[in-house]
Each structure stands twice: as structure tokens, then as C-alpha cells.
Amino acid sequence: MRKILLIGNPNVGKSTLFNSLTKSSEHTGNFHGVTVEEKHKVVKFKDEEYDFYDLPGMYSLNSFSFEEEVARDFALKSDADKIMLLDANSLRKNLYLCLQFLELNINFQILINNYDYFKKYKNNLDIEKMNRKLNINCEIINAKKIKIKDLDLKNNEKPMNNSYFQKISSNSSNYLSKYIKIIKNKYNLDEKTIIYALNGIFNNVNEEQKKFIQSLFPDVILDRYKYIDELLLGVVETKNNFVYGLNKADKIILKPLVTIVGFLLCFFASIYLIFFLMGPLFSEGLNYLIDFILITPVMNFLYSVTSNIWLIEFFSCGVFSSILTIMNFLPQVLLLFIFLTMLEDSGLISRMAYVFDDFLSIFGLNGKAIYITLLGLGCNTVSALATRNMDEKNLRIKTMLLNPYISCMARLPIYVVIASAFFGQYAYFVVTGLYLLGLVVALMLGFVLNKTILKSDSNSLLLEFAPLRPVDFKHVLIVGRDNAIDMIKRIFFIVLGVGVIVWILSHTSFNLTYTQSITDSILFFFADKISFLFTPIGLNSAGIVCALIVGVMAKELLVSTFSISNNVSTISALIASLSVATSVVHFNSATAISFLVFTLLYCPCSSNLAVIKKEIGTFWMWFAILSQFTNAYILSFLIYNSMIHNFFYAIIVLSIILLILFAVCYIIKRIRSKNILCIFCSKNCKGKK
Amino acid sequence: MSLSEVKLNVPTIIKEINILDMKIKIRLMELGLNIGTKIIVKNRSIMKRTMLIVFNSSCFVLKENLAKEIVVNYA
């Protein structure tokens, strides 16, 4: 099997090329740093297997961000064949990376993408001359349309014969030779180590040597560009005013008022259209379809073959209610993903990143956080991974910690159900209010973190503008289809799986027999024991506590757990049951708001926690859990008590509780810092034993 | 004159890059920003913390703090 790596600058179309060659549908977008980890797929062509790898983009081997480091290390450690994808519109910049690979004597084939756009502005590229000058086969392609049969895969097998770089060690006119000589005269380093170090890869180099070599970087870069300019002389002819990435429309788009107001209007209109106008229409159709092709036939069959109440209840309320309650929101989720994909494809995100950067820098974030926020509206786990394109460590940690405050798709069903049940015509305002509350809390926390433990350098934003492009509706539909499949998979593997377990635990008594009354069940017993913790925020019902615990696994489970607890199998029945005092799970308007706020903030889901742990460590994972739970509890407490008493009462009680907690912590700290003999071991163990 | 002071849409030439943070300086140079490079400021953000610059036929978002450290002359 032949391994082939796709490498190149960010946003040149590597993922698009990967999708075309492997017939995949990996996430692509018109923004810098969409791919943050390597992806691969094996395809068979002419009796041979090819394992294509799509790597994150990098401007240089001297990595600037985590995702560039991932790509660089992968490319250098792998002995696979390499395809370097260049953008015809920014060849000068793209060739810099090519040159670095050539310096390391790494073989690759060059493909040039986006030639149509380049030609549209009457620019010219002499590809044959470029082939001759570089002595590497360069081909113009369209990454969207190329097929594996169009690719000259034999090309990589030819030994590289770039005479310029073969002379690297022979005292020739090669621009690196003089630097190699300088370093060799000063330190006893071998040539390979020096060449790697001049590309920012410091193996077997001490700190002093590293500093000296780094001091040569500006001159080396200048020489590399001199060589590129020689190379491009007579190869590329561009119109004087050609600027890739900037369009005429930007004169209007880049006016802050236009972008900010336009974005907010678009966002709120989309929520209204998706969740309150178009979504419910599609949901009704989908419900009818599922009922017609799945539920009615299965239930009719069950009624005809058995009268076992356990089995009938298990299927109607355990299995089907888990599926139906979430399936109901499939159209809404799809529509929102389509909206986000259109935004991403159009190139508007880099404009938003620029316009919002000012505002976000007040809170210690930068413009790139806009992209994370938009991804977070879909899935917080995906957006947590996307923080890899942040250039600074503290900025990345901060953005990852704030990301779960953005309401993801999984939280939407619970918002819509509870808002519809208790706030009727104001449901839309409650849902949008929750989105805004999440953003406000995230920004406030960002501000506090930036002033305390996660100070970051606000100068680090360096972002390339993506060109505005017409939305590719085929791509949008493919993304929609993939997200639908992904959601159906989640419903069947997570929601249904956990839903069945919840149903069994909520219908099994301690003597392991079936019970119709959930209050006699094992689950209810344990949930009831800890429900007192939630009394101050009005959520002291065992059914609600069960849902909150299960919801840590995946937020979609909140709605399905409610429907199981209330023994209902449709959304309309669930909405009706939530305001009935005899239901296991029931609310009034104060507890409903308190629950919605708590759900918005209380904890990242399990997959998001796993990503946080993997990417930034266990400490920050626990920090995320504790800080979110505390914020959720405090805000829910304030809102609930303001509604049932008044705001000042809520503030006073909360202040007293917090003061007591701080006092206890302070006393413990004082005791530990003094030489007091331990009452248990009678030694100066400072309480450690 | 620093890059942060120049007028919009007027081409300038870089004379000096005095950015102290070597990591950012090197990255800017790798992107093609160097002494002698033609650079145009296309836009400034509302709070004047960020700017949009054009060099090497591409468009980049740059912080004003960094632009202050780049010395230019009108072309």
C-alpha cells in the first residue's frame, strides 16, 4: 500500500483535494486552519491501494501553532510520498514551504489549485517554464473535480533531480551554503543538523546554538525569497493591483456596523426560521413518517403476539420515546448546519474574525474565537479541537474552557421543549436569550481568566484573509447529509443505548422486578438521595436530577430521559406533561428558567471533556467541570430566588453562603500554614495525614 | 513613520521591522513581509486595535501594536 501525504499552506484546498481523491466528505471550509489533525483514507485504484493523508496547513516548517507542529512532525517523520498543493494566486508565499522541503531533500510532486480564479483576473502562469526551473513536475488541477485517475501517481517514484539543492553541500552558489559554513565554523555540528535547524527543527542542538541559528533566520528568509523571486521571474505575470482575498464587496462588508448588525440579524432570523417556522413543519412530516413506517407496525405486531405489559411499555416508552423525541429535532439541526456551512464556505468568517477582534480582545480573546463560536453552535467537541489553530497556549486554553458555554445542537431540544411548554409565544425570546446568556457568561469568564491565571498576548493575531466565494450548494448538501447520518448514529448508539438503560433502571425496583411507578425504582431512589443539593435552585425533583446526571454523557439525553420519566412517547405529550404537577418531571415558570440556565452552563458533555483532557490536560478538565458547575449553580440560584422572592434577597443569601465558604477555606488555609499539631497523629503533618 | 500611522490605500515600503517578539517577526517575514516589501493598509478596525494589510499579493489581519513596530516610507 502506498502512503501519500497532502501538504501545503492553509486554505489552499488540501481537504477538498482529499475529498475528491478519496470520495470522502471531510470538513472543509474557506478559512485558515479548518483541518487541525491528520485524516486518512485508503482507496483502491488499478489493483493498488493508496492511503491518502490530509494534513493541517502550514506556512513554514518553523511551526507557529499547534496544528502546524502536528502537520510538520507528521510530514517529516513519514517516509510516504508527498503531494504539495499550491494556490496559483499566492505562489510566492506557497513556494516558501516547497523550498524548505527541498532543502531537507524531501521528494514531492506539486499540484496547483485555484487556477480559474487566478486566470479570471487576467494573470498568467507559464507552467512549463516553472517545471523546467524547479525541476519538479508541477500540474494545474481543480481540487474540486480531480479524480484519482487524473493524478500522475508515478511521479513521486522518480528520484528528485533538483540540481540547485543537490549542490547544497558542495560550496556552490546555494543560498544555504554560507549559513552552513558560518555555523560549522562556530560549532561542531553536522550538515544535516544545521539544515534542519535552519528550518526551525532543532534536533541535537543546545540552547546557545539554537539562539545563534535563530538569529540567522531573518537573513535566511530573505535569501529564500530572493531565490523564489528568481524562480518566478518570467513564470508568473500578475496584474499590478491583484490582491488575493480582497473583493470589491469588502468595502461594504468591512464596515463594522454592517458586519455586526448583519451577523446578529442573520443569526436571530436563522434561529427563528429554523426552530420556530421551518423546523416544526419538517418535524411533523418526519414524525408522521417514522410513526407510519416504524412505530405503528412494530407496536401492532407486539400487541398481536404478546400481552406482556413490560415488553409493550419497554418498546413504546423506552425505545421509541428515546428515538422519537430526538429525531423530532433532526430537521432543525440539519437546517442550522446548512446555515453554518454556507457561512463557512462563503469566506465571511475571516471578515467576522477581523471585525469582532477589537471587541473580543477586551475579554482576552482574539478574532479566531468567532470561528470556534460558530463551530460550537454545531458541536462543542468539534470546536474544542479547532482551538488548535490558536497561536498562543494560554489563548488556546482559555478559548477551549469558554467553548462549552456556547449552546450546541444537543442542548436545543431541551430549550425548545421547555420554552414551548412554559413560555408559549415568548419561547423564541427565551431560546435566543439562552444563547446570549451563554455568550455573556463566556466573555465575563474570559475577562476574569485573562486578568488572573490565563493572561495572553493580544498581539498574536495574524490571520490571512480568505477570498469571498459563491456558496457551493452541492457541498452544503453533502455536509447536511453527513450531519444527518451523524445525528442518526448518535441517536441509535448513544441516545437509544442510554435511554434503554435509563428506562430499565427507572422501571426496576430493588427486588429486581418490573415496576410501573418510577418512584419505586432504583434510579429514583439514588437520584432522590442527592436531589436536596438542587433544592436551593428549585430543581429538587429526582426525575430532573436523573436527567442532569445522564445529560453529562450527552445533552440530547435530557429530553429522552424526561420522556421516559413521564412515560410519554411524543414531543407534544412531553410538553403537555411537564406542567402537570402529578408528572414525575414537572416545572413551573421559575423552575423552568432555573433548569434552562443550569442546563446551559452546568458541565461540558463527556466527549468534550475527553477532548479537553487530551488537548490541555486533566487539571483544566477539572477546572472546566468545577467552574461551569459553580457558574451554573450561582446563576440558577440568583434567577430562581429572584423569581420566587426578589433579586436583593437572592443576592444577600448568595453573598452569605459565599462568605461562609470563603471563611471556611481561609481558616483551613491558616491552620495548615501554622505549626499546629494534628489531632489525629499528634505530629506536625499540617493535616496531610 | 510607523505602519500604524499611514493613510488607507496608499502604498508604502517597509524600511525597518522592530518587532521584539521574534516568533511573530519571523512568521511575518516567512509570509513575505520584509525590508523593501510594498505594503498597503486597506482598513482599520473601529477601535483601531486591528488593521487589514496587503503584501505579497495577499491580505492579512494584523494587530496595530505590531504595526507600530514596522517603519515605512510612502512609495
Query: Which structural class do you get from the secondary structure elements of chain A?
Result: alpha/beta
For the record, give the distance between the C-alpha atoms at the N and C termini of chain A, rounded to a whole number: 59 Å
What string gives the helices and strands of chain B in order? EHEEEHE
Oligomer state equals heterodimer
**Spans of at least 5 consecutive residues with low confidence of chain B:** none
Low-confidence stretches of chain A: 167-172
**Principal-axes shape call of chain A:** globular
Distance between the termini of chain B: 12 Å
What structural class do helix, strand and pairing data of chain B support?
A: alpha+beta
Description:
The complex is a heterodimer of chains A (689) and B (75). Chain A has 28 helices and nine strands. Chain A is an alpha/beta fold and 689 residues long. In chain A, the strands form two sheets. A six-stranded mixed β-sheet of chain A has the order 2-3-1-4-5-7, sandwiched between helices. Chain A has a two-stranded antiparallel ribbon with strand order 6-8. Chain A has four domains: 1-244, P-loop containing nucleotide triphosphate hydrolases (Rossmann fold, 3-Layer(aba) Sandwich), CATH 3.40.50; 256-481, no CATH class; 506-648, no CATH class; 649-689, no CATH class. Chain A has helices at 14-22, 66-77, 91-103, 115-120, 127-134, 163-166, 177-186, 191-198, 207-232, 250-253, 256-305, 309-327, 330-346, 348-362, 369-378, 380-386, 393-402, 412-423, 427-451, 473-506, 522-530, 542-551, 557-565, 571-577, 589-601, 606-616, 618-644, 647-673; strands spanning 2-8, 39-45, 48-54, 81-87, 109-113, 124-125, 138-140, 236-237, 462-464. Chain A is 60% helix and 6% strand. The longest helix of chain A is centred in the middle third of the chain and has 50 residues, at 256-305. With 75 residues, chain B is of the alpha+beta class. Chain B contains two helices and five strands; from the N terminus they run E-H-E-E-E-H-E. Chain B has helices spanning 22-30, 64-67, and strands at 12-17, 38-44, 50-55, 58-63, 70-74. Chain B is globular, with a radius of gyration of 11 Å. The mean pLDDT of chain B is 92. The chains are: A alpha/beta (689), B alpha+beta (75). Strand 9 of chain A pairs antiparallel with strand 4 (58-63) of chain B.
